[in-house]
């Protein structure tokens, strides 16, 4: 099955220069690749396997594009079904009030942190909503490639920037997202 290990080079995107990811330092299992994946879910569905740190984009014929992810640290995990309500390129990041309470130094971003290479949402964000509205959770890029395969976020699912750009292009607004 194809692997996309060569897809992590420097990228020029919307005026930003994303640096090359030293992919040789990332466990091969977390490199973007097409894998066999049997599910009854329709192609286009995103399945997030938090325990194994993989995100699967379901494709035709029992296959999926698999991405390595970073997940919520203990106490910040979540599971359930949502939909991609919005997609944003180079999003503004606004830390939730609860996060500012835990980390008062983030108060300076209460009105939003401008997009850019240091923004925690990275190059793209997919905003997850359910019946109750905005879940507050996102599938987003991260400049912290070394966090892939680890549980250290405040609940969001993070992908390497080159991977979130790929996922963003392949994902339709309204796509179903299942977090296991």
TrEMBL record:
Source species, domain of life: Bacteria
Keyword annotations from UniProtKB, A to Z: Cell shape, Cell wall biogenesis/degradation, Glycosyltransferase, Hydrolase, Lipoprotein, Peptidoglycan synthesis, Transferase
Ranges of residues in domain L,D-TPase catalytic: 44-180
Family annotation (Pfam families): YkuD
GO-annotated molecular function: glycosyltransferase activity; peptidoglycan L,D-transpeptidase activity
The protein's name: Lipoprotein-anchoring transpeptidase ErfK/SrfK
Family in the record: Belongs to the YkuD family.
GO cellular component annotations of the record: extracellular region
Keyword Cell wall biogenesis/degradation: yes
Pathway(s) this gene product operates in, as recorded in its UniProt entry: Cell wall biogenesis; peptidoglycan biosynthesis
TM ranges: none
Entry coiled-coil feature ranges: none
GO annotation (BP), single: cell wall organization
Catalytic site: 140 (proton donor/acceptor), 156 (nucleophile)
Statement: the UniProt record of this protein carries the keyword Methyltransferase: no
